[in-house]
Amino acid sequence: MQLAKRLENLGTETAFAVSEAAAAWKAQGHKIYPFHLGDINIPTPANIVAAQNQAIADGKTGYAPAAGIPPLRAAIAEVEGAHRGIHLTPENIAVQPGGKPVVTKLIQAVMEPGDEVLYPNPGYPIYESQIDYFRGVGLPYRFTETATGFQVDMDYLESLITPRTRILIYNNCQNPLGTESSAAEMEHIAELAIRHNLWVLSDEAYFDVRYSGATTSIARLPGMQERTVILYTFSKKYAMTGWRLGAAIGPKEVIQPIARLNTNDESCTTHFVQWAGVEALRGDQSAARANVEILRERRDVTVEILRQIDGIVVHKPESTFYLFPNVTGVMARLGYTTVAAFADAALKNTGVSFCTRMHFGRPIPGESGHYIRFAYSGIDTPEIREGLTRFRDWIDSTAKGGAA
Under CATH, which architecture does the 62-282 domain have? Predict the structure, then answer.
């Protein structure tokens, strides 16, 4: 039997492929230090779990409204609107089974085949996958490395825009780079969106994973709320990755068709999980704050050891739980010419598993340098120390020995 040709355009979340390689190596009896997947090994706060259990006991196990139960839509509008400094009502909210569906549903709602979509590269690979699958034209925009992190190449971004450009995907507090925009950069991106009449998908999955300062939503800038759809998720802040709960937040004119897509795709987000979301937003926030402190400690240890390795340059971001080290120098020390070979050798010699730049979008022609991504959300601090010490010692001993 023949499958649909459009499946050839469908990508995947490539970090899961790294998980398979790590699992296969572990199955052979080797210890793995998992830095590859942005999952969280911190328990969901107990009050949220209790709220779900109570909802099940109360019979909240049937269908729910396609756009979400009213108490959750109201809570998201009130709490997350206040966090972003924008006025929202429940009509601006369509609850989703996770944050990821917001990407595909916005593309379906506003993009025609052949329309162009700007997306960050390196970036979350599902952007590229969904643009291709729905027959859009993906226009990847790039970043440049600075002394303190990464910034959008604004001249390059602007050069990509044509009359066919329809959507600009923007991920502040970015996966995989861990970087965030300066005020000037965000204002420039907003100005481009307004000038060219673009929809903006603002992926704010890591909005609340902060170690200092405060995150700004691009929707807060003048002229932006009416053209911006925010991807909101409970996964990161509340350690709820497997619960699959999120929301599209935006103008009513686009939220209504997104809710209609809900009806066609999954009918509704799991009823009792939505009540857990109400408790997450309305209830005690101390566990969520404590989770960020755990992540801060992990970040600090990861950066500390990576900076001890000659040939690795790593920045220390104030948001997300990702690092994007430049490993060009260390690969030269060891004699590797491809980052895939370097990653495979690291896994086989140390058990340290990580993604590479190649897992976050097709490389843009002219790219130079080699990068890897470390996610420290799914590995405890003692394991971070043990694994990265092995990684450091392997590099140093291999470089001294003159053979990779």
Answer: 3-Layer(aba) Sandwich (3.40)
Coil, strand or helix at 57: helix
Domain residue extents for the chain: 5-43+287-399, 62-282
CATH of 5-43+287-399, one of 3.40.50.2000, 3.10.50.40, 3.40.50.1220, 3.90.1150.10: 3.90.1150.10
DSSP per-residue letters across 228-282: EEEEEESTTTTT-GGG--EEEE--HHHHHHHHHHHHHHTSSS-HHHHHHHHHHHH
- What is the chain's pLDDT, residue by residue, as a tens digit (404 residues)? 999 988 888 887 767 778 888 889 899 999 999 999 889 999 999 999 999 999 999 999 999 999 999 999 999 999 999 999 999 999 999 999 999 999 999 999 999 999 999 999 999 999 999 999 999 999 999 999 999 899 999 999 999 999 999 999 999 999 999 999 999 999 999 999 999 999 999 999 999 999 999 999 999 999 999 999 999 999 999 999 999 999 999 999 999 999 999 999 999 999 999 999 999 999 999 999 999 999 999 999 999 999 999 999 999 999 999 999 999 999 999 999 999 999 999 999 999 999 999 999 988 888 889 999 999 999 999 999 999 999 999 999 998 765 45
The tokens for 246 are 């999120």
Q: Which residues contact 104 (CB under 8 A, 6 or more apart)?
A: 126, 130, 134
